[in-house]
Amino acid sequence: MPDPDLDPQLAAIPLPALLRHARNAYGSTMRRALEDAGYDDIPKNGLYLIGGLALGRGDVPLAALIRDLRISKQAAGQLVDALVSRGYLDRTVDEQDRRRLIITLTARGRAAAATQSAAGKRVEEALLAKVGPECVRQARIALAALTDMAEWRQPGTIEEELDT
Fold first, then answer.
1. Where are the domains of the chain?
2. Which of 18, 26, 103, 117 is the most exposed, having the fewest neighbouring CB atoms within 10 Å of its CB?
3. pLDDT tens for residues 105-135?
4. Which fold has domain 8-131?
5. What is the pTM of this model?
C-alpha cells in the first residue's frame, strides 16, 4: 500500500541510496562544523573513530578499532598515526598485555568530538522539525533492525534473516 506522505520520486529511490545520502547529510554537516572550528585535518574514518571514542567507549585496543572500522591493520595503523600526529589521539601500551596498544582522545580530540556531536544534533533537530518524533523513532527502529541483521554477525546471516 503506497504511503500518501512519501514523495513518489523518493519512494522509487533504492533504500541503500537513501541511506548513503542520509549518511552524507550528517557527514558533510559534521565536516563543515569541524573545518569552521579549526579541525580541518581529520582523515577519512577519523570522524567515526573520534566520535566512537567520545561516546564513552573508554580506552580502545587497536584490534577493536580494526574490527569496528572493517579496515586492514595497515590502514588502521595509518589512521591512528595520522590522528596521533595531528594531536587528536594518544596511543599507549596496554599494561595488561604489552602487545596491545590503547587509543584515547586528547583534549584536542575531545574538543573535536564535541564539535562533531553538536553538528550531528543540529541535523537531528532539523530532521525532527521536518518529519516529527514518531517518524524519527520509526526510522531508528528500522535502521536498528537492519543493523542487527548484519552488523556484529558472520557473513551470510542477512540471507538467513531474509529466508525466515
1. 8-131
2. 18
3. 999 999 999 999 999 999 999 999 999 999 9
4. Arc Repressor Mutant, subunit A (1.10.10)
5. 0.79
